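User: Second chain of the day. Same drill as before.
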Amino acid sequence: MALPAKYMVHNSETGFQRLMEAPKDIPQHAHFCAKEIDLKEAHPEYGSLFGQYQERLRDAVAEAGEWWNAVVDSLVENEGGDFKKGLVAAYSGWPAGPSSNDRVVEAVREYWLKVCRVGETLKKADRVAPELFLLGWLPKKSVERTVLTGMPYWPIGLDAQGMWC
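Assistant: Same format as last time:
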């Protein structure tokens, strides 16, 4: 189920820029290829993995959309039918909107780490940065990209050895 635009209030382009730039603040991120690689130019392992990711993300976003629509509708009802108050209440509880859904977060984390594992088997020049794979290769007008750009940050961290976890 596609999310109605009125149920999401973030600026997708600002969110896109924020998420694409954020990992560059981490020194370990330089381990990945710094140039922008198009999906068609990427190592074949990434192409295969990207197809799996798109399917997983599509399912996660569909579930998140149903959940978010129910949250907003319920809170609108609690606010006596006032859509604006219901939407504010929804974002007060879940500031990342539908991107805060567990399935979306799980898909992002899972594929971030898979991208890193593939990269470890390749020469540095052939590696793809996870944020490019996860967000940059998604079609610009897709609901999946729109939902992801609502994330305030990538749900990933570094372990004691400085590796993504």
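The chain has one domain: 5-148.

User: Great, on to the next one.
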